[in-house]
Amino acid sequence: MGGTERKRGLSAKTRSRLIAVTAVCAVLVAAALVSVSVIDNLNKRAELQAEYERLAEENAELLTREELLKSMLEYCGSDEYKVQLARELLGYVSPEDIVYEVRDPSQTATP
Predict the structure, then answer these.
(1) CA distances (Å), 100 to each of 93, 97, 103, 107, in order?
(2) Residue 20 in contact with residue 26, Cβ under 8 Å?
(3) Local structure of residue 5 (DSSP, 8 states)
């Protein structure tokens, strides 16, 4: 065989460069995966924060409505409400009331 023999393996310098490049690529891929995960988590956090704020506002509105309904229930059980209802629905007049009757002049009979 008349020429120079070809070496079958990589030199130590080439092997160490290949290992370094492979390590750098692995680190870059890992960093990219972590970045994607972090970005996804930040987006989800923003969505959850917006949902939390919406629900907190809705909760405040419901608490206000609950207080209103409680006061209405309390009023409905009061004597004042019962008297008002009797006046409106049944025409109740208390003994202290002065009753005025207003008549329509067009409906009065003329003799």
Answers:
(1) 11, 10, 10, 17
(2) no
(3) P
Neighbouring residues of 92: CB distance < 8 A, sequence distance ≥ 6: 83, 86
- Token pair 């870059």 is found at 28
Helix pair angle (79-90, 12-76), 10° resolution: 70
pLDDT digits (tens, 9 = 90+) for 60-96: 999 999 999 999 999 999 999 999 999 899 988 888 8
Calpha distance 94→16 (Å, rounded): 107
